[in-house]
Every structure is written in structure tokens, then in C-alpha cells.
Write a structure and sequence with these properties.
alpha/beta; 6 helices; Rossmann fold
């Protein structure tokens, strides 16, 4: 599903960790990838990985993902991906993040948000979004929402 959407997309990787997902998006033809990570050690790793790969379409922002999204005012992304630490994802859930992604225009209408979560965390369908995939892989759940065009 997402594989076909990545080419030429603007990609947002929240809770980027090593940056593997955002850099994979660039390798698959994403026009731009912004990787958001708050841990300084991970940010340095991401910078090194971007340089080593010559991934000019990728950039890293050191910030808390929720704060980054809450204050975002740039061009909307076609795809946003989040793989937060499981406890953080379970505590906050994705309702607040989905509201911010739509309300701040972080994800364009028709764009998608993909989240990796603990299996026990259920995917909900908040207003303005349609849950298009909810799959279980071992102890992990992968959920994909598409932002409604008519919001």
C-alpha cells in the first residue's frame, strides 16, 4: 500500500530513532524526508547516516515529536510515520497526534499516517481520518489512516 505512495512524496518520520524509516523512504524516491528525534545521540547518528548515504533529500530536526507537530506551519506531508516508544504511544494514544496532524495541516488531505504500536493498543478512527489498515505482526500492530479529503 504505502510502497507505491512513497515515490515523490514528502515524508515525515516522527520518533525517528536511527532514521532507518525516513532514509528508506528517500531510497525509494521520496522527494523529501524530515526525521524528527529528540535524543541528541540519535540525532548525531541520523546526521552521520544522511552524510554516509548522500541522502540530500533527508533532513533531521532535534525536537519532541508532539511539540514539532503542534507548532508546524510548513508545507504538508504526503506520509507521516510514527514509531514511538511503546509506553509513550500507549499513554497518549494516537487521537491527539492525529488531531494535530490534521489541524496543523502537517498531513495533507488524502495523505496517510502510519503508526507502529504494541499489539494491545487498539487503532481508533477519529473524525477526519479513515483507518485503512490495521494488521498484527507478532507483538506489533501496524495501523494506517488516510486523512479525509473533506475535513
Amino acid at each position: 500500500m504505502l510502497r507505491d505512495d512513497v515515490a515523490s512524496a514528502r515524508f515525515l518520520d516522527l520518533f525517528a530513532g536511527s532514521g532507518a524509516v525516513g532514509l528508506e523512504a528517500v531510497s525509494r524516491g521520496a522527494a523529501a524526508a524530515v526525521l524528527v528525534e529528540r535524543d541528541g545521540r540519535h540525532v548525531e547518528t541520523i546526521r552521520k547516516n544522511i552524510a554516509a548515504l548522500g541522502a540530500q533529500a533527508a533532513s533531521v530536526v532535534r525536537a519532541d515529536a508532539y511539540r514539532y507537530v503542534a507548532s508546524y506551519s510548513g508545507e504538508g506531508f504526503d506520509i507521516a510515520f510514527a514509531d514511538p516508544p511503546y509506553l509513550l504511544g500507549e499513554e497518549k494514544g494516537y487521537g491527539e497526534l492525529l488531531d494535530l496532524l490534521a489541524g496543523r495541516g502537517v498531513v495533507k488531505p488524502g495523505g496517510v499516517f502510519c503508526a507502529e504500536t504494541a499489539l494491545r493498543q487498539k487503532a481508533e478512527e477519529p473524525p477526519g481520518w479513515t483507518l485503512v489498515r490495521d494488521r498484527e505482526y507478532g507483538k506489533t500492530r501496524l495501523a494506517v489512516w488516510r486523512r479525509n479529503v473533506q475535513c
